[in-house]
Each structure stands twice: as C-alpha cells, then as structure tokens.
Amino acid sequence: MSGAALQASAPARETMRGGRSALTRSRVRAAWIFIAPTLIVLALIAGWPLARTIWFSFTDASLNNLGDYEFIGFENYVANFDGEWFGLLTDPDWWRSAWNTVWFTLVSVSIETVLGIVVALILNAAFPGRGLMRAIILIPWAIPTIVSAKMWNWMLHDQFGVINDMLLRLGLIAAPITWTASPDTALWTVVMVDVWKTTPFMALLILAALQMLPGDIYEAAKVDGVHPVKVFFRVTLPLIKPALIVAVIFRALDALRVFDLIYVLTANSRDTMSMSVYARQQLVDFQEVGLGSAASTLIFLIIALLVVVTLVAGQVRMSGEAR
Amino acid sequence: MADVVLKNVRKSFGRVHVIHGVDLAIEDGEFIVFVGPSGCGKSTLLRLIAGLEDITSGDLFIGGERVNDLAPAKRGIAMVFQSYALYPHMNVYDNMAFGLEMAKSSKAQIDAKVRKAARMLQIEALLDRKPRQLSGGQRQRVAIGRAIVRDPKVFLFDEPLSNLDAALRVQTRIEIAKLHTDTRATMIYVTHDQVEAMTLADRIVVLNAGRIEQVGTPLELYHRPANLFVAGFIGSPQMNFIPCTVARTGKDGVQAQLPDGGTVTVPVSSEGVRAGEAVTLGIRPDHVQLKGQGVLTGRIELVEELGENHLLYVNMGRERHLTVREPGDARHEAGQEVGLSLDGGFCHLFRESGEALPPLPGSRGPAPTSPDLNSTAA
Ligand SMILES: Nc1ncnc2c1ncn2[C@@H]1O[C@H](COP(=O)(O)OP(=O)(O)OP(=O)(O)O)[C@@H](O)[C@H]1O
Ligand SMILES: [Mg+2]
User: Fold this and answer.
1) Does the global pTM surpass 0.90?
2) What ipTM does this complex have?
3) Tell me, what's the pLDDT at B372?
4) Cα–Cα distance between B14 and A81 in angstroms, integer?
5) Pocket of ligand 1 contains residue B18 by CB under 6 Å
6) Same domain for A114 and A193
7) Is residue A116 domain-shared with residue A1, that is, in the same domain?
8) What are residue B123's phi and psi, to 5 degrees?
9) Average pLDDT in the A13-20 region?
10) Number of Cβ within a 10 Å radius of residue A175
C-alpha cells in the first residue's frame, strides 16, 4: 500500500471509531432530545407511583397512618409464622380473584375479537348509510363505563329490570333471574356488558386494518374462483394479523385490570371479584396499604409477563411488515 | 379454446356512461390489443370481459356461451393485473398454487403445474420468496405464472408491463409473445405503449371515449387509419396534420390545396368529395422530405437526435408545426430555413367529420413505392 493511500484512509478510520459516524451520533443525540420529555413525564406519572407501590408492598403501611410503617420484606406476599402460612399468595380470595380476572379476560376478549371482526367486515362492505352506521356503533364505547355499568345494572335488576321483564313476557324464563347476584350468571353478565361496550373499539381497530388491504388481490381471488370464506381465512386474516394482535393486546391489558365495570355491577362480590377489585378492597376497606400494594404489584407483574409472552408468541414485528 | 364476442356492450357507473355500445368479435387464439388515451375505457372493457364489473346492457359470449351472468371464475379466463395483485403474505409458489386449490386438483397435479409454469418463466429459483423480496420484473412474471397455471381459454392483461424498465419491458414482451405461440390461447391485452401494441397484436382495437374507433392489423391501422383520431393515435411521433381545401378531384385522386398555395395529389377515392371542401391532410414525419424548394417552407425550431434517426420540429408560421424524421445524424441546425415536400402517395386525407377518404386500390400498402406525385405550384 502506498503512503498516500494510508494517509487518505486515516480520517475515515477516525470517524469509524466506536462504530459510529459523526452524523449517526448527532442523530442519536437528537432522538434522545426528542423523547426526553416523554420519558420524564412517564417517569413522573407512571414510574414514581409504580415504584412507590412496589415499595409499599414490602412494608406494613396502613391507610389511617401512612407515615408510620416498617419494612417487612416479603411478608405481605408470603410468610410463615409458627408453621402457618400467611400472606397474599396463600389467600384463596386472591387466587379466586386472579382466576376470575383471567377467565374474564380470556372469554371477553375472545368474544370481542370475533364479534369485532364480524362487525368490521360488515362495516367494510359498501352499503347505503355506512358512514352513519360507523358512527352509531361507537356509542357504547363513547359512554363512560360507570354510566353504562349503572345503566345495565338497572336493566338487569332482578325485580324492576327491563331484561327480566322482556324475557318473562316472551316466556323464555319462568322466574326473574338475579343476573348480577347469582354466582352462575354474575361473571357471564359482566362479560356480556363488557362485550357490549368494547366490541365497537375492536371493530374500529380491525376496520382500520381492513381498509389498508389492497383491493386488487380480492379481484385476483375472484378471478381464481377462491371461495370467500377461504379468502377470509387465507388472505384477509393473515394480512390483518399484526393489527389484530395489537388490538388484542390492548384489550387484554384493559381487561386484566378491569375494575369499574365489575365494581359497579357486582360490588365486592367474591364470585366476580377481579384482582383490581381485590386490591381496592385491601387498600381502602381493610386499610391494608401493604397488602393492597402487594396485590397491585402482582397484577403489574402478571400483566407485564403476559404482554411479553404475547409479543413473543405472536411475533409481532411492530415495524416493517409492510408489503 | 374460445372466441370472445361482444355485442353492443354498454357500461355505466351510476349516471356516468363509460362504454357506449362496443361490438367486437375476437377469434379463437387471436392476440388482441386495446389501445386508447387514458380514461377511454380500456380497463373497464377488460374488467367487463373478466366479470369483475357487471355489464349494463349488451351481450358477452366466450366460446359461444353467453357469460354475462357467469362468475369470473367460471368464464375460463385468467387476468394479469397492472399492479400484479400478488398475495403479499404468500410465497411465490403459494401465490401460483392458491387459485388451483379450489379446482379439485390433487397436490401432485398442482405441484406439476406450478413447477412447469415456473420453469417456463424462469422463476424456479424464486418459489420460496415473498413478493416483497422480488424485483418488479420478477413479480410481473409471478403474476403471469399465476395466470398460466389456470390453463385459461382467454388471457386478459391490463397494462402488464407499465411498471417495468425499458429493457425488462422488451424481454417480458417477448416472453408474452412466446407464451401466445406456445399456448395458442386467446389474449386480450391493454397497453399505452405503441411498440407493444404494434409488435404483439394480431389486431389492434383503438378505443376513444368508450367507443371503438377502428379495429385492424397493426399495419392496417398504420397505413390506412380510418379517421383522424386513429391517424393521430397510432405512430410516434404523431402524424402531421395540415388543414387544406380540395382543389380538384379526379380519377387519380384528390388534389389538395395547401395553405401556402402548393398542391398535393393524394391517391384516394374522390367519391362524394366536392372541390372547395375543407379537408385535413395527414403525413407521417418519416414521409416528409427535406428539399431545397418544396411545397412548404419553414424554420427549424428544434432538433432532437435519437441516434439512428433524428427529429426536426419545423415552424411554418401562423402557429403551424411539422415534425420531420430523417435517418442518421442531423445535418441541420435550429434556425435554418428549409423547404419540405410531401409525397402524395404517403398522404392521408380526412374530411371534416374526421373520416378518412379510402385510398385508391393498390395505392398504399405496407411498403409503397409510388412515383413522386408532387406538383409544385409557383
Ligand atoms: N368505479 C367507477 N366509477 C365511476 N367511474 C369509473 C369507475 N371506473 C372507471 N370509471 C370511469 O370510466 C372511465 C374509463 O376508465 P378506465 O379505467 O376503463 O380507463 P382506461 O382506459 O383504463 O384508462 P388508463 O389508460 O388511464 O388506465 C374513466 O373516465 C373513469 O373515470
Ligand atoms: Mg386502465
């Protein structure tokens, strides 16, 4: 190699030091500047309360005297005194509420996904008044949960509710059903109201995905004579899968921390108690900030774990699955 | 195999009439090309034949059967879309095989068909790739492959080469021509490209605003355009048009009086033509000759060198322009005054309605060597 060539390559090596050019470095710096405000706000409104909750879960804090507490390690979670087990992980009510929550999430999100797809497919078809329909269908989603839950509470009332009245008149049932109180129906009732409320949201997300699909491949399938049902399962569904998974994760996260709906419909009933309702009961009704915080921390861990599992299993690449 | 017959086919989208009564008989095994300006209804006509749009009125027959109410899949057609329309999530193999799965063929049969088509189109090495991992030309070939495996009686192509670069276009064009010779299937092909139309077509259909202007072999359209529209549309650069009046009619044709006083005798039928009638004289840029003293004079405005030939844009004053194509490198420069002479044997005359006067028998063919009919008036 000649001396001139060596000299020419020296500055190039200079910029390559650390694997980054000056341009890349300045881009990275700009990126950090732009996301810094978001990170700070997130740290303040999400990070700080989370950290405090986790901290409280290791203490014996109580709601009537929040300033005075001691660090007790994992005793809120599980502890052994004189051969007897105590703590959250040994409380059957906690496990019951955890199971209720998971069951509620699985069932309601499944139904909402299927119904959401059906509604989205209908709204995606061309028919007169489609714009109006798209607006109308959003109404259940737009009503605050507290309001709609109260509304359903009245409609489902065992003596004065319109639903029992209708079913009785139609002769479908012989006696009024205590929808929200009976252990057989309570959780299903909660699921039904949640489906009523949240299907529009699912439908809208899926509709957006459907509208991104290229129209020409459907014409190609038509010319090829592929049956519409097969087109749906082999073409539409795979193509909206990334959006569908995102929608399902959104909904599942919401459902896992369900509170207002269940609290309004069935209060502190054990049959329907969700993890969030349990945590509230510990925190507020029993004033056990430590135990409530431990429950909240577990909810956080469970949700975080499920998100990771879903993301990995679904192999959602959040970027670059484009055509 | 199948012929395709359209009888007074009309199409309207709501109140917009797009196709105004098209009559066309396409023979079995024929290669038909639709050309026409953008928005004239070429794609719509193709989609009517495919069954992707409903025919508003009229009849469509494929292989003798009326197919107006038949689903696209039952018409024995295959369509290649301009946008390829490949399934983005399926690999090349599945893209080609997907449509066959319905047709009650066994896995082995499907496999054989797909591999045969892939070999034919030289995409065997790409069978495992997704469409997004392919170049435009490769995608195009997959789209054609998907049509081939269906063994259609009629192939429909909607501007299949418009997204390809020049070299790939020529190559794919040749492949399509080969496909036609191999399969002898009827092919209907929409294009904007003159060269594609001229080289591929057995017959060209020139469409304008939802109507057929002329149907004929490429050379028929080139040498005997039926009207001003076809004359202007076929051939590049465009035919020159010069407004004239009829000076005299006779057995040897019609003598046209040029605006600057010269006359040209064009060997066309003079039936029904009166002296003094306004006509348009058309002559292709290749047939205008540069002469020191011609029937027309003008100043060269622009010279375009194309290598094997060159174009001269001549301004003849009063907003009138003429394009001349000369072989080889230009021997002229912009600004030069030139004389132009017109060979009557190469001229076309169009009446005011736009309709062409029919050439006298034997006067104009694919390679005319008619005597110089120019007459230069002082
Ligand atoms: N679905 C539709 N609704 C209303 N008008 C339409 C529809 N499809 C096509 N048209 C109209 O029909 C006419 C013909 O359209 P078409 O697509 O057949 O043109 P084209 O000849 O294929 O043009 P291009 O060469 O640009 O592809 C256009 O004026 C277009 O606006
Ligand atoms: Mg078109």
Assistant:
1) no
2) 0.81
3) 36
4) 82
5) yes
6) yes
7) no
8) -120, 20
9) 55
10) 8
**Is residue A294 assigned to a domain?**
no
- Determine which residue's CA is closest to atom 2 belonging to ligand 1: B13
- Residue A307 forms part of a structural domain: no
CATH number of B232-350: 2.40.50.140
Count of other CB atoms within 10 angstroms of residue A270: 15
CB contact under 8 A, A225 and B131: no
Does B99 contact A238 at a Cβ distance shorter than 8 Å?
no
Distance CA B99, CA A255 (A): 41
Same domain for A1 and A119, yes or no, is: no
Shortest-distance ligand to the CA of residue B19: 1
Per-residue pLDDT reduced to its tens digit, B160-173: 888 788 888 888 89
Q: Is B39 in the pocket of ligand 1 (CB under 6 A)?
A: yes
**DSSP letter for each residue of A138-184:** THHHHS-HHHHHHHHHHHT-TTT-HHHHHHHHHTS-SS---TTTSHH
What pLDDT sits at residue B49?
Answer: 95
Long-range contacts at A44-52 (CB < 8 A, ≥ 24 apart): A50/A300
**Nearest 10 degrees: Cα torsion B178, B183, B188, B191:** -20
Count CB pairs under 8 A between chains A and B: 69
The total of structural domains in chain A comes to 2
What range defines the domain where residue A240 resides?
A: 91-287
CATH of domain B4-231: 3.40.50.300
- Extents of the domains making up chain B: 4-231, 232-350
> Is A20 in the same domain as A110?
no
Question: Using the beta-carbon criterion (under 8 Å), do A216 and B50 form an inter-chain contact?
Answer: no
pLDDT digits (tens, 9 = 90+) for B83-102: 899 999 999 999 999 988 86
Partners of residue A322 in chain B, C-beta under 8 Å: 132
Residue with tokens 């190699």: A1
A295 belongs to a structural domain: no
B25: nearest Cα among B1, B4, B51: B4
Characterise B187 by phi-psi region: left (phi > 0), alpha (psi -120 to 50), beta (else).
beta
Residue with the two structure tokens 């068909």? B113
The ligand with the least distance to the CA atom of B40 is 1
